[in-house]
Amino acid sequence: MVPLNRQILLAARPVGFPKETDFRLVDSSLPDLAPGQFLVRSIFLSVDPYMRGRMNDRKSYAEPVGIDEVMVGGVVGEVIESQHEKFGVGKLVVGMFGWQEYAISDGTEVRIVDTGSAPISTALGVLGMPGLTAYCGFLDICQPKEGETVVVSGAAGAVGSVVGQIAKLKGCQVVGVAGSDAKVAHLVDDLGFDAALNYKSTDDYYGKLRELCPEGIDCYFDNVGGPISDAAFALINRFARIAICGQISQYNAQKLEQGPRLLWKLIEKQAKVEGFLVFQYVSQFREAMQQLSEWVDSGKLKYRERIVDGLENAPRAFLEMLQGENIGKQLVKISEAP
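The structure assignment produced for this chain is given below.
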């Protein structure tokens, strides 16, 4: 057993946008393993938008992180000691082990990593929860058809970038919304989107989306909410499908914004809007992972990662992700891969 475990705890509940002082780095001791448990050495930590909601003192889709508790988060790591017959020493595993260097688990909601020829970091990105979120949510709710127009907000992030590429594989016209010219170039030049909008370069989201989607919007995959989604709603076609995955533009708001009330558009266009959580698709994960892996191995599905070194820098990486500084998946490297 290792003598000390570095952990990052939630030190305070954020008011508005989080600060680095809302977190605290501590050293703690590790107990001995009990029968049926194993010890994981963390290699990569995922930082994701949903974590902002877990910092609030209210339950939404999951329990909040308590003050002075380890921050929640997905980790890929190596089993270094084990009293569990399935998770032997040397196995690479993914689980919600949190913001810490080591974790003890009994195997609940832990899976053994098999990324094929892809780096193990992809088990937290394109071949992990973001990839599954994109695949299951987009295909189930939006049900894209060849020739349709698909708009993706937060398109340069870990989920949005996969959604857009899947839409292209299904024969759709794809328009992404992102927050910089570099992200726009990445979407069009690297990922094959037909067009993309830098929302920071215009105030006329409706006018720009109408220009890029002259035949309207058939599918909208929403990661951000707010005025961008208001503009997309106003352009939906008859029988459009809208998947609500995230509302990152609202996560740090201290009071709800007043926006256009456009639900009447769903009546006019006989359209559907549906929110989802990836965990409702657990029964489809095996099939989804097989297809995602095939696309990655063949080069049909591309990905990018932004990696920050050191557990102590996880708060900064998290804040930078919320500010949109990442292209693709934001990760924290905690230790070297075996």
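Interim note for the steering committee: The domain at 129-279 is CATH 3.40.50.720 (Rossmann fold). The radius of gyration is 20 Å.
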